[in-house]
Amino acid sequence: MVCSHILGFPRMGAQREWKTALETYWKSGSGAACAEPDAESLVRMGKQLRASHWALQKKAGLDWVTVGDFACYDHVLNHIQLLGCEPARFGFTEDMSELDRYFAMARGSLREEGGQALSMTKWFDTNYHYLVPEFLPDTVFSLHSERLFDEVKEAQALGYPVKAVLLGPVSFLYLGREKTDGFDRLSLLPKLLPVYREILERLHREGVRWVQIDEPVLGLDIGEKWLAVYEKTYAELAKEPVRLLLTTYFSSLSGHIGMICRLPVDGLHVDAVRGAADLQEIAARWPSEKVLSVGVIDGRNIWKADLDKALALLKAPELARRGNLWIAPSCSLLHVPFSLEAETAMDFRLKQCLAFAVEKLDEVHALKEALEKGDAAIGKALDSSRKTVAFRKGDWVHNAQLAKRVGKLAEDADRRKSVFSIRQALQRKRFRLPAFPTTTIGSFPQTPEIRSVRASFKRGILDEAGYREAMQKEIAFCIAQQEKLGLDVFVHGEPERNDMVEYFAEFLDGMAMTANGWVQSYGSRCVKPPVIYGDVSRPKPMTVEWIRYAQSLTDKPVKAMLTGPVTILQWSFVRDDEKRSVVADQIALAIRDEVADLERAGVGIVQIDEPGLREGLPLRRRNWREYLDWACRAFRIASCGVEDETQVHTHMCYAEFNDIMPDIAALDADVITLEASRGDMTLLQGFSDFRYPNEVGPGVYDIHSPRVPSVKEIVGLLKQASAVIPADRLWVNPDCGLKTRQWKEAFAALENMVKSARLMRETVY
């Protein structure tokens, strides 16, 4: 029996309807003050989107519709409510609705104390961010939400066969964080399992036959302590009558396969894109009477599948003789855009090479048809696939001159001229900044007026002169606001930029943008990853004009803002016919040329953001060294072509860096700024343990929350930071850019930040 299914579907909708609905709801007021009709509208839109997504799965011929993958903000946050472990620090009262509590955890409560939003970090090595569960010794669990069961009923009422989705208990605990020193969150597992059993029993009672139970941490080096609990955990869950499909993705399962194949579950899903090398061993060891789901369609990238290659894998003897074979994408389709249908203006050469979520549904079904009825049943699809494979090998993707330049890079191209101590002295003499210098990460609020100007220019309604005048006016406003606030290092505010990667992609050869290829990053925040289809080069300067203009308006140093090569690579859909390290070097040379032009224009401080560097770290530690070597080298190629007096900053956020501190130091940036406020500065411990040699700017407030932090809060964080890092090497800045905030919030928060820095100067010096 061959079945087809998916692990999850994009939540935002074909036109980002969910983003619009969320932001409309939030604007009307948050928490219990939100008007009931707006809440009803939000719930209604969610129901409409789910019905539409299930209809697409059914139309494509899939055997199951996947239920439970939709989230108002984040699927891990869904489980925090489902499992009844909302942190007590929020002080929720009985009169607060589930939705109000949900968004308080996601975005922060307006309460002065205890209302800080849950920490947010990257979902494995993707650009999706999940909200981190918090665990204490007295954490209790209980079935506390009807959301999942209501969605099951919605799908059943529409006549669909339902496969429900749960994040597995071990992964849920592993992905959380202890909030008490010395406490082991794994000790909570005996209290958690009865609630999972209750959920499974309830789903079975509601008529659900299969539950997809995701355990993605099985693709990590999680250690013996965590691996040891799996057999007892699933022996307990197997007592419930519903069938369990244990789901893994994003990585090889090497080293864990024997244990996994002993688990008392009814099916196993494996990522046959990233874990293809495991498939033969798994197929040989996995009991033949059980379901084996093979994730053969790439759920992380947008290239059309090579159907011949996929069928060869599925027809391999070890799979062909199985009686229960399911076909699926490698992981949830959350990580790809909705549909190619909206890409009406895309170059036909590129468009014919792509498949978004809706098109991947058809690819999954086509493979099932071929296995059941023979290749002739999908003749047209196979012919199209073969033409695409051949076309992607053409000359249109190659740049011989660039290849020559990459091959002849000087041996010292990734090294600064002098060591940091010499550079630091020269930079301090040049800029004469006070102790605890204040700055921001780059962007200022992107108002509807700014977006309207950009859209008008893009559509040809506004000419270039009008566009330049509007952008200069906004830059002048940003500079004036920073003068008023008393910041020490300014930025130009980035009004001309739609996204920190998309902006640069529009200037670079070998990269293309979609019109509607949006992918959820977190909450209502969506990004539109570029498509790297060929060799990447920079035909002309990208930022110099705007930074030069901003610097002409002030005597304070204006920091130029660039996105680093690894982040551009990581936050794009990358070609799969070239080594990632080669593509990284190509992008690094483009950024290096931009830095050189900025320096020639008189810019003294350049920030090259690399939030994607930690995210790109392979999930298995044995692959770290190779990645870190080429990734850190790419950053240095981009940043090291400057004089000692030029100060290079980098910024990183929403990931754990403590395990790669030597490599962060090896970037040799003069200043690193990073997200730290949501984690109560715990991230800084690594900088202390390693004795990080250069200057550091830990983020002192969370820009993803509308809360304005008090001076008391910020000073408290700065005191924590100064206990770890010498005060003469500390900068003061927000966690990240301010583009998603409103000016009123941003100005008030920055005002308190500047006051806090001044208080620290008085206290310490």
From TrEMBL:
Residue span, Cobalamin-independent methionine synthase MetE N-terminal domain: 4-315
Binding site for L-homocysteine: I441, G442, S443, E494, D609
Annotated residues for binding of Zn(2+) 1: H651, C653, E675, C736
InterPro entries, A to Z: Cbl-indep_Met_Synth_N (IPR013215), Cobalamin-indep_Met_synthase (IPR006276), Met_Synth_C/arc (IPR002629), UROD/MetE-like_sf (IPR038071)
Protein residues bound to L-methionine: I441, G442, S443, E494, D609
Sequence positions that bind 5-methyltetrahydropteroyltri-L-glutamate: R16, E17, W18, K19, K122, N127, R525, C526, W571, E615
Cofactor remark from the record: Binds 1 zinc ion per subunit.
CDD domains the UniProt entry points to: CIMS_C_terminal_like, CIMS_N_terminal_like
Pathway membership: Amino-acid biosynthesis; L-methionine biosynthesis via de novo pathway; L-methionine from L-homocysteine (MetE route): step 1/1
Binding site for Zn(2+): H651, C653, E675, C736
Biological processes per GO annotation: methionine biosynthetic process; methylation
Molecular functions (GO terms): 5-methyltetrahydropteroyltriglutamate-homocysteine S-methyltransferase activity; zinc ion binding
Cofactors that this protein relies on: Zn(2+)
Pfam families, sorted: Meth_synt_1, Meth_synt_2
Keyword Calcium: no
Record-listed E.C. numbers: 2.1.1.14
Catalysed conversion reaction: 5-methyltetrahydropteroyltri-L-glutamate + L-homocysteine = tetrahydropteroyltri-L-glutamate + L-methionine
Domain of life: Bacteria
Keyword annotations from UniProtKB, A to Z: Amino-acid biosynthesis, Metal-binding, Methionine biosynthesis, Methyltransferase, Repeat, Transferase, Zinc
Active site per database record: H704 (proton donor)
UniProt KW Protein biosynthesis keyword: no
Family statement: Belongs to the vitamin-B12 independent methionine synthase family.
Cross-referenced HAMAP family: Meth_synth
Free-text function comment from the UniProt entry: Catalyzes the transfer of a methyl group from 5-methyltetrahydrofolate to homocysteine resulting in methionine formation.
Protein name (database record): 5-methyltetrahydropteroyltriglutamate--homocysteine methyltransferase
Organism whose genome encodes this protein: Oxalobacter paraformigenes
Gene: metE
